[in-house]
């Protein structure tokens, strides 16, 4: 089993993550709290109340977990393609796999990474939604002191299953959209690369960026549902399940609610995924 693919997935994921985290915090807040007028308003308020640090809340944990999550995504994708087409990463330039195979392998990677991602993502979302300034004397302390404390609280208050709150929505969000992710990437690379050659760095950056956007645009409706279900554990009996969350959100806030965070998701997706794919391809070439 080519282990390089897992290693490359890890490093490239970490680079992308740091770049994108501030956008991600704004997105999560817009999706789950109704006190912001829009992207700018949320950015200004976060900065005023919490300083720049506010944008990096909940990041330490994803940095640790991206090792697992992105390496599972890229490692499983690449190994699924190997199983489907019997070609290794290097051979694939000369014998490109069909888009159906790319899609199926992408979905496989997506499904498996969602399972690993679920608890980490839940903790990230809970921490990002704490809007208390870090050191406010006399003010109420935030509910969670950090990722480990947050995990311990969820375990105590909601049980082990609590850690997987929103996991179904996450799986439904990621399985098809990561298929779309790799298909878009492959398609754009092939458009701008002469046959049989390795795509240039510029091509990889652009293809990776648009793959990220395509994947996030299609993922946004379920991303909203997922984030809301993850927060719901806090208020007792908030949602009965995914359908209930969809119906009640739509009734109370209109269909537009499912597109919340679309713009910021896309703005984040381009640089994050451009860097992710560029470092992934470079690492694999360097190790070949
Ligand atoms: C499938 N979905 C669009 C939800 C995620 C795509 C993941 C790509 C990358 N890790 C990122 O954070 O942008």
Provide a descriptive summary of the structure in words:
The chain is mainly alpha-helical and 288 residues long. It has a single domain (1-287), classed as Mitochondrial carrier fold, CATH 1.50.40.10. It is 73% helix and 0% strand. The chain is built from 9 helices and no strands. Bound molecules: N-trimethyllysine. N-trimethyllysine binds next to helix 6, helix 7 and helix 9.
**How many distinct helices?**
9
Q: What small molecules are bound in this structure?
A: N-trimethyllysine
What are the low-pLDDT stretches, counting only 5+ consecutive residues below 50?
A: none
Helix content: over 70%
Strand percentage lies at under 5%
Summarize the structure.
The chain is mainly α and 288 residues long. 73% of the residues lie in helices and 0% in strands.
Task: Walk me through the topology.
Elements (H helix, E strand, L loop, with lengths): L2 H30 L6 H12 L9 H26 L13 H30 L18 H16 L4 H25 L9 H32 L9 H12 L8 H26 L1
Helix pairs in contact: 1-2, 1-3, 1-9, 3-4, 4-6, 6-7, 7-8, 7-9
The structure holds N-trimethyllysine.
The site of N-trimethyllysine has 12 residues, from helix 6, helix 7 and helix 9.
Features:
9 helices; 288 residues; single chain; binds N-trimethyllysine; Mitochondrial carrier fold; mainly alpha
């Amino acid at each position: 089993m080519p282990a390089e693919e897992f290693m490359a997935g890890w490093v490239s994921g970490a680079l992308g993550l740091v770049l994108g985290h501030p956008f991600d915090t704004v997105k999560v807040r817009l999706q789950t709290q109704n006190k912001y007028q829009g992207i700018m308003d949320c950015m200004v308020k976060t900065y005023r109340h919490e300083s720049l640090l506010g944008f990096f809340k909940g990041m330490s944990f994803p940095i640790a977990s991206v090792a697992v999550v992105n390496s599972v995504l890229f490692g499983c994708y690449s190994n699924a393609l190997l199983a489907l087409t019997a070609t290794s990463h290097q051979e694939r330039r000369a014998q490109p796999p069909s888009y159906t195979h790319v899609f199926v392998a992408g979905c496989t990677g997506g499904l498996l990474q969602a399972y690993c991602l679920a608890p980490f993502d839940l903790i990230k979302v809970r921490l990002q939604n704490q809007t208390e300034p870090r050191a406010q004397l006399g003010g109420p302390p935030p509910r969670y002191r950090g990722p480990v404390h947050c995990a311990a609280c969820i375990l105590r208050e909601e049980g082990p299953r609590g850690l997987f709150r929103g996991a179904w929505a996450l799986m439904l969000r990621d399985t098809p959209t990561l298929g779309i992710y790799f298909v878009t990437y492959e398609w754009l690379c092939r458009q701008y690369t002469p046959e049989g050659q390795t795509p240039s760095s510029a091509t990889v950056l652009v293809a990776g960026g648009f793959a990220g956007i395509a994947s996030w645009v299609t993922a946004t409706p379920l991303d909203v549902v997922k984030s809301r279900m993850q927060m719901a554990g806090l208020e007792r009996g908030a949602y009965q399940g995914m359908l209930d969350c969809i119906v009640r959100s739509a009734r109370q806030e209109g269909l537009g609610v499912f597109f919340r965070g679309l713009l910021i998701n896309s703005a984040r997706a381009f640089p994050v995924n451009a860097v992710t794919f560029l470092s992934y391809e470079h690492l694999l070439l360097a190790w070949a």
